[in-house]
Amino acid sequence: MHASASPYPHLLSPLDLGHTTLKNRVLMGSMHTGLEDGRDLRKLAAYFRERAEGGVGLIVTGGFAPNLAGWAKPFAGTLSTSGAARRHRVVTDAVHQAGGQIALQILHTGRYAYHPFAVAPSRIQSPISPFKPFELSVRGVERQIRAFVNCAVKAREAGYDGVEIMGSEGYFINQFLARHTNKRTDQWGGDYSQRMRLPLEIVQRTREAVGKDFTLIYRLSMIDLVPDGSTWDEVVQLGKAVAQGGATIINTGIGWHEARVPTIATSVPRAAFAWVTAKMKAEFLAAGITTPLVTSNRINTPEVAEGILASGQADMVSMARPLLADPQFVAKAAAGQADLINTCIACNQACLDHVFQNKTSSCLVNPRACRETELVFRPTVAKQRVAVVGAGPAGMTAAIHLAERGHTVSLFDAAAEIGGQLNLAKQVPGKEEFHDMLRYFRRKLDTTGVNVHLGTRVAAADLTGFDHVVVATGITPRDPRIPGQDHPMVLSYIDVLRHHKPVGKRVAIIGAGGIGFDVAEYLVNADEAGHVHSPTTDLPTWQAEWGVTDPALSPGGLSTQRPQVSPPTRQVTLLQRKAGKPGAGLGKTTGWIHRAALKNKGVEMVGGVNYEQIADAGLMVTYGDKRAGATWIECDNVVLCAGQLPLRTLADELLANGRKLDTDLHVIGGAKEAGELDAKRAIDQAAWLAARL
Ligand code: FAD
Ligand code: NAP
Ligand code: SF4
Predict the structure, then answer these.
(1) Which residues line ligand 3 (CB under 6 A)?
(2) Beta bridge partner(s), residue 335
(3) In what order do the strands lie in the sheet with 468-471?
(4) Residue 99, class by beta-carbon neighbours within 10 Å (0-12 exposed, 13-18 middle, 19+ buried)?
(5) C-alpha torsion 580→586→591→597, nearest 10
(6) In sequence order, what are the residues at sequence separation of 6 or more whose Cβ sits closer than 8 angstroms to the Cβ of residue 431?
(7) How far is the CA of 308 from the centre of ligand 3 (A)?
(8) pLDDT digit string (tens) for 560-571?
(9) Which residues contact 381 (CB under 8 A, 6 or more apart)?
(10) CB within 8 A of 689, min separation 6: which ones?
(11) Is the model's pLDDT at 279 over the cut of 60?
């Protein structure tokens, strides 16, 4: 399709870089997946090949260290020798065969390194690493610069189309720029012209070494979001110098890793930081600098990306996780099938959380991500009639893949709508992305020809005509058996989120797992009529709540005032029996955000309680060994969020009727095992089952 005839004319228009032309304005942002580590890069090649086939304009790899000091962790991916360059050929060849372009990101972690050989401008430990870095000598700084340049040369040798020099997110280069991490008094420290010498030397010397016909991206930290971050004047000065020093493209970096402002989580509004790139764009225009600027963070649909480009805020859009979620993102947009894009919900559950657990990344909505060579859906050679019971994420995923493979699939749900518990999740402020997940499922069910039967509760007797039955009936809430729980003031999370039953001004929530936290978030943001004011859909409110401001007003873009949080609509107490911090089991990279958001809204989080009784006065609790006596938590409602148990009734009936487990009866998702069951596991189980049936 010709770009001008497409629904996204700006997004799909080519970008002329002088020595080469990118086919569109989509840059696949750098993401560490775990496939970079080690010597065998074939899985990485397969992963990038699919993204190149899907039409992305320019891929940037996850970070590769230029030397051992720059490793993120021991044995992290490194590119410093010709031998390593030869091993990377499998990656560059795969991308080029698919018609794509790929740049290697050079990442030196400096004091963020998770190993004892970390180096930095000054011997100041970061709050997110247990290792105190060594202060580099002048010769040591020179060695690091040479390592960057050498890495770029090896990248070119390996067949990469370019490199991205990682100058943001608080890594090595950023550490030289900011005063609070650079206390040097030599030529690499002191005033800004000295502190910015490091990136300039790296860019200029890299450009000299790689020649003119090689794409050099510089990732510029445009808003540090840490106290004592760079001033706006400094950022502009560096941006211009880097552009004039040889960068082909400047990419936007948002926030240091140690920042206490969420930058990519699902509760961050879409395109929440595009205005920062736009601010730089205005500076470039005024100075007559034409170096293309890439904007980034929480851009996950072609509409949002097109809007940014059409309004001139940036020249290109970086999307990273959205291309994990759907490698065909660009191709679908170009074909006018944006409604079939599997949208990244920004949950971090299978990508970033995995990285922090030393596991290979994948994607909650697309378990094939980073498993391209293992999870393969082949057309079936033996067509079967399959009944799938339950249209939650597990059942829908199974039904879609089974139908795509050629089976005849009927999907049943007792409810009048598809989605199962996703319909509860989408009510939670900050989880609006679940609406798009449901849109994707709905469209895929339509286009794959699954026979969907809603409002149909099925029993074993209804399923005799099927070769296989997949039971995906989900869960039933756990009964916490608290004396007095049949009091009319007691509600379940389903009453609150599905039936929107009235909830009073003072609420005690029993259970501080994922659902307890979500119900609390809902209750402090919903008014009595059930209207929810979500900061995620209101950028100024979100910025005020997290203290994000114009970097021209406050260095690093972090407001010096206390966060301006609108008062909670209810007084909420969130309780758990376990001693210790409620929310400890939430996502690795997002738990702190949930805790901070609720704390800002005055939610009291209490661990180590025993539930004694519910009565007119509220909830009676004791603490720990009960020696301190009982306390009443006065409240209008108690909401039960005490976990879930598998709903096995149908599976048990089918077994009793003679079906054989894992032969012609398959149980997945919450129905199989509810403990710690999330949509990631439900979808993953369904996908693997559908691939082998
Ligand atoms: P379900 O989603 O429970 O679906 C089961 C379906 O089966 C239901 O629609 C039900 O009507 C149907 N059914 C049952 N019996 C029958 C029958 N006999 N006949 C016909 N139909 C039947 N997970 C995450 O990973 N990330 C999150 O951020 C997240 N947030 C959440 C927020 C909330 C408020 C809630 C409640 C859950 C959240 N979850 C989250 C959990 C996630 O939604 C569940 O793990 C997931 O939905 C389980 O999927 P499932 O397909 O196994 O079951
Ligand atoms: P959960 O995370 O297992 O939490 C259950 C809570 O109930 C815990 O706080 C637990 O703490 C408490 N509890 C357990 N047994 C109890 C009992 N007998 N009496 C009183 N309290 C009891 O489950 P959930 O919150 O119901 O969530 C269900 C699943 O959905 C989870 O596994 C989660 O993965 C998923 N989910 C994920 C997200 C997300 O953002 N990723 C959000 C929502 C839900 P104590 O035992 O200490 O009291
Ligand atoms: Fe996006 Fe979640 Fe998938 Fe990560 S796991 S790519 S955040 S949908």
Answers:
(1) 321, 324-325, 344-351, 363-365
(2) none
(3) 451-453, 408-412, 385-389, 468-471, 665-667
(4) exposed
(5) -80
(6) 266, 267, 345, 425, 518
(7) 22
(8) 887 889 999 999
(9) none
(10) 398, 470, 666, 668
(11) yes
Write the CB contacts of 76 (distance below 8 Å, at least 6 apart in sequence).
Answer: 36, 37, 63, 65
Q: Which of 665, 678, 681 to mutate to test the pocket of ligand 1 (most atoms within 8 A of CB)?
A: 678
Average pLDDT over residues 481-487: 98
**How far apart are the C-alpha atoms of 252 and 294, rounded to whole Å?**
6
Distance CA 496, CA 525 (A): 13
For residues 685 and 486, is the Cβ–Cβ distance under 8 A? no
Q: For tokens 């963020």, name the residue.
A: 112
Residues ≥6 apart with Cβ < 8 Å to 222: 168, 235, 239, 252, 253, 254, 273, 276, 277, 279, 280, 551
Amino acid at 249: I
How far apart are alpha carbons 270 and 257 in whole angstroms?
19
Ligand 2 site, CB within 6 A: 349, 478, 480, 510-516, 518, 576-578, 585, 587, 641-644, 676-678
Tell me the CA–centroid distance for residue 675 and ligand 1, in Å: 13
Alpha carbon of 610 to ligand 2 centroid (Å): 16
What are the tens digits of pLDDT across the range 382-424?
A: 999 999 999 999 999 999 999 999 999 999 999 999 999 999 9
Distance CA 23, CA 640 (A): 53
pLDDT at 626 over 90: no
Q: Which amino acid is at 423?
A: N
Query: How many angstroms separate the alpha carbon of residue 51 from the centre of ligand 1?
Result: 30
